[in-house]
Amino acid sequence: MKKRVTIEQVFGGVLRELRKRSGKTQETVALDAGLDRTYISMLERGLRQPTLETVLALSLALGVSASEIVGLVEAQGHF
Questions:
Q1: d(Cα 5, Cα 30) in Å, to the nearest integer?
Q2: 35 in helix, strand or coil?
Q3: Phi, psi (5° rounding) for residue 35?
Q4: pLDDT of residue 28
Q5: What SS3 class is residue 77?
Q6: CA-based end-to-end distance of the chain
């Protein structure tokens, strides 16, 4: 039986992909978004689920729209 992927895990993968595409480190994204680097790490590993405020802060830090982030999560997650 295939293990179900959680929203947190899909979001983490999308965040990691967007961060790497931007050429930024977790620390740089955290500073730009006003968040802690360890929180970025937990998000990327699927250990935390972001609030809307966090998604908006991350979108600004990564130079993408919040709707793009959510759209990628939706497309990859099959929810």
A1: 25
A2: coil
A3: -120, 170
A4: 98
A5: helix
A6: 18
Q: Where are the beta strands (DSSP E) in the chain?
A: none
Token digits for 18?
């967007």
Q: Is 24 left (phi over 0), alpha (psi -120 to 50) or beta?
A: beta
Cβ-proximal residues to 59 (8 Å cutoff; 6+ apart), any chain: 65, 66, 68, 69
Q: pLDDT tens digit string along 5-32?
A: 999 999 999 999 999 999 999 999 999 9
The half-sphere exposure of 48 on its side-chain side, counting CA atoms within 13 A, is 14
Q: Minimal CA–CA distance to 18: which of 78, 77, 60, 53? A: 60
- Whether pTM > 0.90 for this model: the answer is yes
